[in-house]
Amino acid sequence: MFTERRQAGPDQGWFTASPRLRNEPARPHAVAAVRKFVLIPTALVLLAACGSPDPAPAPAPTPSPSPRSVAIGPRERAYLAALGSIDPGLVTNQARAVVHAHDLCADLARGTEHAAVLASATWYFIGADVSVDQAKAERIVATAQMLC
Questions:
Q1: In principle, which of 25, 81, 102, 104 could form an S-S bond with 144, CB 3.0–4.6 Å?
Q2: Dihedral angle at the C-alpha atoms of 89, 92, 94, 100, nearest 10 degrees?
Q3: Rounded to whole angstroms, how far apart are CA atoms 131 and 145?
Q4: 95 and 72 Cβ atoms separated by less than 8 Å
């Protein structure tokens, strides 16, 4: 492929190509094709981005109750009072305490092992200011059964 080799000049690489490749005329049609495929799509994108008016802002979604939100009625208030007698730190977030009681009820209804239910109670109710040991977890599960 390379027929001659000479010392590299300022505008040449380490070796030069054959004279046939070096003396090949420019291809103006290839340059025009590249311009068509690059410039036209770029212009269309710019026109589409700049020329269209801003769409009307979408109305703000109305807040819907989360699937985990709870209504605190008389049964829940009795449960929270009983839970607060175990440790007042357990009821700092009342809605969370009620939701976790329903989770414990669901575990009991599914027939989950008692040790796993106690582990869930420990996981649900442990916090920065509350520690939950085995005895406290037993009392929490017994109290949560008020809502089952």
A1: 104
A2: -50
A3: 21
A4: yes
Q: What angle do CA 29, 33, 36 make, to 5 degrees?
A: 140
CB 140 within 8 A of CB 90: yes
Within its chain, how far is the Cα of 73 from the centroid? 34
Consecutive H or E run containing 122: helix 114-125
* Residue 42 to residue 48: CA distance in whole angstroms: 10
pLDDT of residue 26: 58
The Cα–Cα gap between 114 and 126 comes to 18
- pTM (two decimals): 0.53
pLDDT digit string, tens, across residues 41-70: 676 666 666 655 555 555 554 444 444 667
Both structure tokens of 105:
């009820």
Question: Which tokens is 43 given?
Answer: 């212009």
Q: Closest Cα partner for 122 from 107, 53, 78? A: 107
Tokens 């017994």: give the residue.
142
User: Tokens 């291809």 correspond to what residue?
Assistant: 27
Burial 108-121 (b: 16+ CB within 10 A, else e): eeeeeeeeebbebb
